[in-house]
Write a structure and sequence with these properties.
heterodimer, A: 445 residues, alpha/beta, six-stranded parallel sheet, B: 550 residues, 12 strands, NagB/RpiA_transferase-like (chain B), cytoplasm (chain B), protein biosynthesis (chain B), guanyl-nucleotide exchange factor activity (chain B)
Chain lengths: 445, 550
């Protein structure tokens, strides 16, 4: 078999506690489907037949997905805090081939073959997906206009072709200067450094990387530790550790370090053109006397998406943005289910916008206009309500005359008559009294 | 389709001279002594172990024709034609094969016994009379039926006509919808995706495929590939992206992947390894062919491998059979490629004298090896002029390797060859394949260099291993070639892409040829692992090879 797919759904959603306190992140509804459905759908469309899903026990009970793939759930108990690399180590016995790791909060319509082809063609150690990150447009509801601190930027260095990943550093790890090793510049004199890229957390990893993780227990997170380590390792030669081995006094400690070096896990026949290195006339670089790829054994590649949808539902703002983009994605996927569910009872079809999603068994009264919104199932929306740009989850009741704009309303909330809500986040099971006006106020349970 | 060429190619020269290939005919050389009159309607049949598969097929066809004719002519009460009764009288018409024993007469069709006691001349006269009679009948019958289509060669009897039908390989019939439909059906059956052609082609080459590198075949396949082995998918991608190129590199990579395929193969129950493995290899070969058309070296290697697999004795267990196959593949690699390269390099660098100026073109692994060996193993001083051409610019890689070895090099583009040739003492070229009429098929631009060298009286030497010898005959570069991605011709200069919008211009077509054919009179010597031979001896080598293999 060529690949095994692993979806990491055990994360807590620590950056959007407002929402995830009541609903676990993999089950957050986006476009009326649980968040976990999107990466699984991506894998199903690509042709995978089996997926390993790492999650917590209660999530699996609440999950009801209609997918033809065989899902293999692996449970992690609540009280153990596992990073993504720890989870991979946990299932290492199931992993027999190269692995494709996905995060559960990835919503994308990328052509997966583009990422995987880089992995296959160059026999790469790592192949990942990135997208040019758009600037955030609006202030997220619940954040009262205070500017969120700029998230730590990532500096990504790619070579001239834009495919080979040369350098990766996060602003948090750097003091004031960006330090680039001379060996990188000697081998790749032209490097493009970009900051506006968002990592999609989709990685193709070789099997020996998983073996390396098993031995190396200090690495806990894939994104923040393993990937930069691999990118750095491309340009550090294994011979530098050989000298440590010869030095008997320092002996044992260095020996241990050497055995944890990833080069010791790479099987002998990893060089790209091993059977025919002298014969093929391809070279990835020009201008110096070195062999193809400088005979480097670790190679990292990245596919940078220019257009198309790729978002990670990490924070509240991104959640809302994802909900806005999802109707188009669902239309393009050509699913059988229409955006407006068959069992929904809508009196005025004309008042419902074309890209709004209405769930099953929802009742919508007369003269209710719904634009660019997503309404869950079993909701009751009475007459003369205006809903614009909102995300309404399941079983919500909205009485007459309300006006909602740009808000997120969680499960089972009740909004009494005449409420005017703008840019708010209303938690689960909340009940709003009549005729109140709420503006940009977060409300939690 | 590589397999298809062999019987067709073998037949060609014989067809041209109008003789039926009896057992005694050498397959490749034209048949001497077989004038237009000598068109025996009966095959010369030989009993013996040397009857090859093609011969058997031929025989079977002819027998069928005989039977049909007999049935038709029963009404006209003509004597049924005698089959190859006296083989001896027929022998002088055909070139006697030195190895075949004198034919013992065999009459399988109608079981007629040759009349005993007749002399050779009488038998000959009898047969001639019969032939005339049946030719007359045939013409009468045709006139009756009112068929306007007169046979092109009225002397050719129906037994020979069907076997003239030649099947063209699919890859030169892209503009024939019937052939493409057949291909699509075949690929669907094997579950291999069909790659779409890209861009408008130049009219003269519209019978060839033209693919785009940006639309790989994996777009249409499921990601963990199940039908095609992952190693083969990777190889196909490496071929189509140009990471493995060069005829030796492609063949070596192919054989290594086949070794892995055989390792991972397990015979299903109730099947024989020898037949099932060949069937399992076919989709993979189709897939690789869709990624990039197979090279001649790859085609020969595949033919060899299929033959080895089908010749496996049934008594072997699966493990032993697999090991034996891996052993034969290793042998083939070692003998035909590695050792051949050593031998060629050795004989070639004897041709390099002190203070020579050698011109090389593009990047050929053999030529590079020869020059590096000459530099290290002898103490002759020579310098090299590397000629390069767009869009591949492979000469840069040659330059890097030679300079790394310490050889003094000059680098020019192909438009400068008439300026540098006056100082060149010999030209050393590599080849993709050597065709049966002695033509050299090599990277596009090679024939140009050979032509200009001839004009300047500079000797042209071609280095080629024998496993790249092909039974195809080509006199021009149009019939069978490869069209590369036309977008490779787009040049980025100062932020502008010249020719970037070529697709929008209806009257602009881009042509990116990969190979061209150099006629044999422009080449002075071919250096092979069998020695240094002139171009015209290639058919002899092929014939010897065929005899060896049979």
């Amino acid at each position: 078999m060529e690949f095994q797919a692993v979806v990491m759904a055990a994360g807590g959603g620590s950056r959007m506690t407002d929402l995830t306190s009541s609903i676990p992140k993999p089950l957050l509804p986006v476009g009326n489907r649980p968040l976990l459905w999107y990466p699984l759908n991506l894998l199903e469309r690509a042709g995978f037949e089996e997926v390993i899903v790492i999650t917590r026990k209660e999530i699996q009970k609440m999950l009801s997905l209609d997918t033809k793939m065989k899902l293999d759930f692996v449970y992690i108990s609540d009280n153990v805090d596992m990073g993504t690399a720890d989870s991979l180590r946990h299932i290492h016995q199931k992993i027999k081939t190269d692995v494709l790791v996905l995060s559960c909060d990835l919503i994308t319509d990328v052509d997966l073959y583009k990422v995987v082809d880089l992995f296959r063609t160059h026999d790469a150690t790592l192949s990942m997906l990135m997208k040019k990150a758009p600037e955030p447009t609006e202030v997220a509801p619940g954040q009262k206009g205070k500017k969120k601190p700029v998230e730590q930027r990532d500096f990504i260095g790619v070579d001239d072709t834009g495919k080979r990943l040369l350098f990766m550093a996060n602003e948090a790890d750097l003091d004031e200067e960006l330090v680039i090793k001379r060996s990188i510049l000697q081998k790749h004199p032209r490097m493009h450094i970009r900051t506006g890229l968002m990592d999609a957390h989709l990685y193709c990893l070789k099997k020996y990387v998983v073996d390396f993780l098993v031995e190396n227990r200090t690495i806990t997170s894939l994104r923040s530790e393993l990937i930069p380590h691999l990118v750095r390792k491309q340009f550090s030669s294994p011979t530098s550790l050989q000298q440590g081995l010869d030095n008997k006094e320092e002996g044992r400690k260095k020996k241990e370090q050497a055995s944890l070096d990833i080069y010791s896990f790479i099987k002998e026949d990893n060089s790209l053109l091993k059977p025919a290195p002298d014969n093929s006339c391809w070279n990835d670089h020009r201008g110096d006397m070195n062999e193809t790829l400088h005979e480097g054994k670790v190679r990292c590649y990245v596919h940078i998406m220019k257009e198309g949808l790729c978002c990670r539902v990490n924070t509240l703002a991104l959640y809302i943005e994802a909900n806005r983009q999802v109707p188009k994605l669902l239309l393009n996927l050509g699913l059988e289910e229409p955006l407006v569910h068959g069992t929904a009872q809508i009196t005025d079809r004309g008042m419902v916008g074309s890209d709004s999603i209405i769930g099953s068994s929802t009742q919508i009264g007369e003269k209710t206009s719904i634009k660019h919104s997503i309404i869950g199932s079993a909701c009751t929306i009475k007459d003369k309500v205006k809903i614009t740009n909102c995300i309404i989850m399941n079983s919500v009741t909205i009485e007459e005359g309300c006006c909602l704009q740009g808000s997120v309303i969680c499960n089972n909330a009740v909004i009494e008559k005449g409420a005017d809500i703008k840019d708010c986040l209303i938690g689960s099971d909340q009940r709003l009294e009549t005729k109140e006006q709420f503006l940009i106020k977060p409300l939690l349970e | 389709m590589a397999e298809r060429e062999a019987p067709g190619g073998e037949r060609e020269p014989c067809r041209a001279s109008g003789a039926a290939p009896g057992r005694g005919v050498s397959h490749v050389a034209p048949v001497p002594g077989a004038g237009p009159g000598a068109a025996p309607s009966v095959p010369v049949v030989v009993q013996g172990p040397e009857l090859s598969r093609e011969e058997k097929l031929q025989l079977r066809k002819e027998k069928k024709q005989q039977k049909k004719k007999k049935r038709n002519e029963k009404g006209t009460a003509a004597e049924p034609p005698e089959p190859g009764t006296a083989a001896d009288p027929a022998q002088p018409r055909v070139t006697p094969h030195p190895a075949s024993p004198p034919a013992s007469a065999n009459a399988p069709n109608d079981g007629e016994k040759p009349p005993g006691g007749k002399s050779k001349a009488e038998l000959r006269a009898e047969r001639r009379a019969k032939q005339e009679a049946e030719r007359a009948q045939k013409q009468a019958k045709k006139a009756e039926l009112g068929q306007g289509a007169a046979p092109a060669k009225p002397r050719l009897t129906p037994t020979e006509a069907p076997s003239v039908v030649k099947r063209l390989p699919e890859h030169v019939q892209v503009d024939d919808p019937a052939a493409q439909r057949k291909l699509a059906k075949k690929l669907e059956r094997q579950q291999v995706p069909l790659r779409q052609d890209y861009g408008t082609k130049v009219n003269l080459f519209s019978h060839l495929h033209q693919y785009s590198r940006k639309k790989p075949l994996t777009q249409q396949m499921s990601i963990p590939s199940t039908v095609i082995h992952p190693a083969v998918v990777r190889l196909g991608l490496q071929y189509s992206q140009g990471i493995i190129n060069g005829s030796n590199a492609r063949c070596i990579a192919l054989l290594e992947v086949f070794k892995q395929l055989i390792r991972d193969y397990s015979t299903p129950p109730n099947e024989e390894l020898s037949r099932d493995l060949v069937a399992k290899l076919k989709p993979h070969i189709s897939f690789l062919n869709q990624c990039r058309p197979l090279s001649v070296s790859m085609g020969n290697a595949i033919k060899f491998l299929k033959k080895e697999i089908s010749c496996l004795p049934d008594t072997l267990r699966e493990e032993e059979a697999k090991e034996k196959l891996q052993g034969t593949i290793d042998n083939y690699l070692r003998e035909k490629i590695v050792l051949a390269a050593e031998a060629i390099s050795k004989s070639a660098f004897e041709k390099i004298n002190d203070n020579d100026v050698i011109l090389v073109y593009g990047c050929s692994s053999l030529v590079n090896r020869t020059l590096c060996d000459a530099h290290t193993q002898t103490d002759r001083t020579f310098r090299v002029i590397v000629v390069d051409s767009r869009p591949r610019l492979e000469g840069r890689e040659t330059l890097r390797r030679l300079v790394r070895h310490g050889i003094h090099c000059t680098y020019v583009m192909i438009n400068a060859i008439s300026y540098v040739l006056p100082e060149v003492s010999k030209v050393l070229l590599g080849a993709h394949a050597l065709l049966a009429n002695g033509s050299v098929m090599s990277r596009v631009g090679t024939s140009q260099i050979a032509l200009v060298s001839k004009a300047y009286n500079v000797p042209v030497l071609v280095c080629c291993e024998t496993y790249k010898f092909c039974e195809r005959v080509q006199t021009d570069s149009f019939v069978s070639n490869e069209l590369d991605d036309p977008d490779d011709l787009i040049v980025q200069r100062k932020g502008q892409a010249q020719l970037g919008g070529w697709a929008e211009n209806k009257s602009l077509r881009l042509l990116n040829l990969v190979y061209d054919v150099t006629p044999p009179d422009l080449v002075d010597l071919v250096i092979t692992d069998l020695g240094m031979i002139p171009c015209t001896s290639v058919p002899v080598v092929l014939r010897v090879k065929n005899v060896d293999q049979q």
